[in-house]
Inverse folding.
């Protein structure tokens, strides 16, 4: 391969990398075959890094999400037990142990608050489905077990579900 072709190829690939973006907020209506889940159920497919809000037997709203990093993933069924706009955040003990420099509380609305514009806490643990102020993290294996969404997407999902909604996390 000539040097000119190699440079052109490298420039093209580099431009593609620079132009590629992280997940963009835009819930998608998708066809699905998930007869096992009742309408209104939230299904998180960790391996896909996608969250589905089941609408009926053949349709769901799909969102990109960030999920637990290696060793921090979980699977199971729970429910939304609280909904909060601009929540303050206190790092759980495990996070604080790994990052002792974190303050005990980060106020809601702070650009350093990892919860973003809204959070829905999950029963039985320290996990939540929440927004983020780091949109580039959505689509990756990035959290301590929480489900991370773009702020526009958590706002949309927040308006569609209520406390008590079933949440299924599957690998």
């Amino acid at each position: 391969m000539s040097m000119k072709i190699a440079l052109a190829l490298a420039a093209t690939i580099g431009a593609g990398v620079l132009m590629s973006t992280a997940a963009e907020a835009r819930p998608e209506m998708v066809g699905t075959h998930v007869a096992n889940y009742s309408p209104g159920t939230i299904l998180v497919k960790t391996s896909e890094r996608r969250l589905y809000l089941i609408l009926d037997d053949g349709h769901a709203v799909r969102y990109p999400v960030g999920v637990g990093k290696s060793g921090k993933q979980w699977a199971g069924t729970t429910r939304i037990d609280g909904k909060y706009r601009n929540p303050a955040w206190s790092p759980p003990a495990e996070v604080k142990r790994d990052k002792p420099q974190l303050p005990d509380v980060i106020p809601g609305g702070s650009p350093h608050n990892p919860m973003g514009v809204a959070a829905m806490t999950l029963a039985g643990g320290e996990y939540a489905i929440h927004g983020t102020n780091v949109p580039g993290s959505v689509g990756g294996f990035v959290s301590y077990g929480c489900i991370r969404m773009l702020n526009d997407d958590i706002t949309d999902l927040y308006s569609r579900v209520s406390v008590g909604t079933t949440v299924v996390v599957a690998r």
The radius of gyration is 18 Å. Helices lie at 3-19, 93-98, 151-160. The CA atoms of residues 93 and 100 lie 10 Å apart. Residues 1-21 have pLDDT under 50 and may be disordered.
